[in-house]
Specification:
The chain is mainly alpha-helical. The radius of gyration is 16 Å and the shape is globular.
């Protein structure tokens, strides 16, 4: 879906996403994060419908906290600190750096943070799964 978004906005809106490697790294990190978060949500949900509802709520809250709807990172220190728990904030920063004058480090740091969050969430989900099923 990210590939379609990049191609469509480039062709229709003349958007400049920057180098392909930055788009690929950030997109891969987003997938790792979504998988980890989805796995963790799955350990709390009783069925697929509930998991879908939880995922929608969590995604919306994280998007709001991350500044997708309103740029709250520009607010006072507490707001900036709060945004750091959202992968959306890091992805916005990474894609912005990739399409602007950012350096490789400006793209790699958000990539590593988002992927790291996903791995951590996935590890927690794996630990919860083991406790729920008794399977290690």
């Amino acid at each position: 879906s990210m590939l379609v978004l990049v191609i469509a906005t480039t062709l229709v809106l003349d958007a400049d996403w920057g180098p392909w490697w930055g788009i690929a790294l950030l997109s891969l990190a987003a997938v790792v994060n979504a998988m980890g978060l989805g796995a963790l949500i799955g350990t709390y949900a009783r069925n697929a419908e509930q998991a879908s509802q939880f995922a929608g709520i969590v995604a919306t809250v994280l998007a709001f906290i991350g500044g997708v709807f309103v740029p709250i990172a520009a607010g006072p220190g507490l707001f900036d600190t709060l945004t750091r728990i959202s992968p959306h904030r890091w992805l916005l920063a990474g894609f912005g750096a990739n399409s602007g004058t950012g350096t490789v480090v400006d793209v790699l740091i958000p990539t590593l943070v988002v992927a790291g969050m996903g791995v951590l969430l996935g590890a927690i989900a794996f630990g919860r799964r083991s406790k729920l099923t008794g399977v290690v």
